[in-house]
Amino acid sequence: MSWLILPLSLLCGFILAGTGLCVFTLYRAHALWNEMKSAPERKAPGEDPELQSLRQTVEALAAQLHDLQNHPPVALSPALPRSGLNLSKRSHALRLSRRGEGAEQIAASLDLPRQEVDLLLKVHRIVIGNL
User: Fold this and answer.
1) Which of 10, 15, 85, 111 is deepest in the core (most CB within 10 A)?
2) Does residue 42 lie in a domain region?
3) How many C-beta atoms surround the C-beta of residue 120 within 10 A?
4) Degrees, nearest 5: CA angle 25-31-36
5) Would you say residue 118 lies in a domain?
6) Tens digits of per-residue pLDDT, 61-110?
7) Residue 12 and residue 10: Cα distance in Å, rounded?
8) pLDDT computed for residue 47 by the predictor
9) Is residue 46 part of a domain?
10) Which domain range does residue 111 map to?
């Protein structure tokens, strides 16, 4: 019979601990319920100006994303580099140089960068000097 007393006392301890836990849980739930009831009314999410500003920003970004998905931007091909000095422009530049026009005037009339015209004239002088 003594072997029954120990398990019964252990069982009573578990029951007592479970009951205490239930009472504590009910007490805490009641306290939270009263706290919620007595708390001042919170503003609706739409009334907060900061939150409303964030919402508008997110909506604008969503609209932009929607537009980009529906109308993808046209990919522009890179501009082809202008061809350098072709033979006709080269000969024309040399002719203008022989007439006594300066590098700036030649560049303006042939729509070429001044550095290209200067380089052409220097190379021409070097070639002529070697002959």
Assistant:
1) 85
2) no
3) 21
4) 125
5) yes
6) 999 988 888 887 677 777 666 656 677 888 888 899 999 999 999 998 88
7) 5
8) 64
9) no
10) 87-130
Number of structural domains (the chain) is: 1
pLDDT digits (tens, 9 = 90+) for 42-69: 555 556 788 888 999 999 999 998 888 8
Structure tokens at 99: 């007439």
Residue with tokens 């002959």: 131
Neighbours of 71 (CB within 10 A): 8
Say whether pTM exceeds 0.85.
no
Instruction: Give the pLDDT confidence score for residue 2 in this predicted structure.
Output: 56
CA 46 vs CA 39, 50, 59, 104: distances in Å: 20, 9, 14, 66
Two tokens, residue 51: 């939150």
In a domain? residue 121: yes
Q: In this structure, how many other beta carbons lie within 10 angstroms of the beta carbon of residue 109?
A: 13
Question: What six digits make up the tokens of 3?
Answer: 């072997």
